[in-house]
Fold this sequence. Notes:
This protein has 15 helices and 15 strands. With about 400 residues, it is an alpha/beta fold. The strands form four sheets. It has a seven-stranded mixed sheet with strand order 2-8-7-6-5-3-4, sandwiched between helices. β6, α9 (about 205) and β7 form a beta-alpha-beta unit. The protein is globular, with a radius of gyration of 21 Å. It starts with 6 loop residues before the first helix and ends with a helix. Bound molecules: pyridoxal-5'-phosphate. Pyridoxal-5'-phosphate binds near residues 163, 166, 167, 192 and 194.
Amino acid sequence: MSSGFSEADISRARRETPGCEEVLHFNNAGASLMPEPVVDATVSHLRLEARIGGYEAAKRSREAIERVYGATAALIGCDRDEIAVVENATRAWDMAFYSIPLGPGDRILTAIAEYASNYIAFLQVARKTGAKVEPVPNDEHGQISVEALRNMMDERVKLIAITHVPTNGGLVNPAAEVGKVAREAGVLYLLDACQSIGQVPIDVRTIGCDMLSATSRKYLRGPRGTGFLYVRRAVLEDLEPPFLDLHAAEWTGKESFEIRSDARRFENWETNFAGKVGLGVAVDYALGWGLDAIWERVRTLAEDLRSRLNDLPGVAVRDLGAEKCGIVTFTVKGHAAEEVSRRLSAEGINTSVAPPSSTLLDTEERNLGPLVRASVHYYNTAEEVSRFCEALERSL
Ligand SMILES: Cc1ncc(COP(=O)(O)O)c(C=O)c1O
C-alpha cells in the first residue's frame, strides 16, 4: 500500500493502537505507541516462556524469532545475513564503531547534528588511538554540507559517521549524497538511522552506507530494548567486534577461536526473544502500510503542525534542513521547555524535551537551550494537531 493513507486506513491504524484512546501522543521520537499485533506477539512469546520454559519457547517460536532478520532486511534493502539484532541503537552503533581499526592521525568526519553518545565514543577512541574527530560544517539549510565534506576528504579519512535524523529536530541529513562521497573515496560510512527508521524510506544500497544502526521503539513502533545493526557483507570480515562470546565466535582449540562470518558476530548469546518477535512483527506491520505512504503522511502532519505553531505568538519553530521529517521542535518565549511539556502532559498530551547536551555542537552553534519536541506519526491526525495547538495556546 504505497498510495497514501485513506480515512479508513487512519481509522484502522488508530483502532489497532489502543494508546490512541488514552493520550494524544506526540512523543513518537521517544517511543511510539505500539500497535496491537506487536503487543500481542511480544506478550504471547513471554507467556509461552512462562508456560513451557524460555529455551523451549525459543525452539518452538524459532520461525517467529528468525522473521526479524528477513523483515529488517526487507525494510532496508539488504540480505538477512547482514543484520544483527541487539539491545538498542546505541549498542548497534557501538559494535560497529568500536570494530573499526583507527590509529594516530586517522580522521573521522561527522556532522554538526551528531548525537551525544556517538560523539562521546569518537572522543574516547580519539583519546586512546590518536585519531581525530572533525565535524563537517552545515550548508545554508542547516544540514551537513556535502561540498564541505568533499573538500575535507583525503587519504587520512578512515570513517564518515553521521546521524540521519538528529535527536533534536526535523532535519534529515542528505544520507545518499554523503554516501556518494564515501563510495567514491572508498571510505567506511556509518549511518545512525535511529530516528529515521520507520518514518523515512531507507535503502542501504541507494544510500551507500557500510553500516547502519537502528532502534525498535521509535518510528518502527516495536518494543523497547531491541535494535539492529546492518553491516555490508563486503566489509564484515574486516570488522572485528569489540566483544566476542560463544554466539559471535566459536572456540575451536586451546589457543584458537573463529569469528562467525555473518553480521550476527555483533550479537551476543542471551537476548530478548520476545522483543525480537515483537520487532519482526513491527517491521512487517510498517511494511504493510508502506514506507512511502508513512513518509508522506508523517511529513504532511508535521508541516501542518509547524505552520500552526508559527502562527502562535512567542512560539519559534527550530527545525533545520531542506527536507524535514515528523519531528517538530520549538521554543516558547518566556516559558521553559520543561514547563511547556509538563503543562501539555497535564492535558494528556505527550511531548518530550531535547536537552542541549544531546546535540552539543548544534545547540552551541545555534545558541539554543532546551527545546520542546513534538513528534508525529501516521496514526496521529489533523484534529490532534489542532487540539495540541489549542492546548499550547491555553497553557501560555
Ligand atoms: C540520533 C540518535 N541516535 C541514537 C540514539 C540512541 O538510541 P537507543 O536509545 O535505542 O540506544 C538516539 C536516541 O534518542 C538518537 O536520537
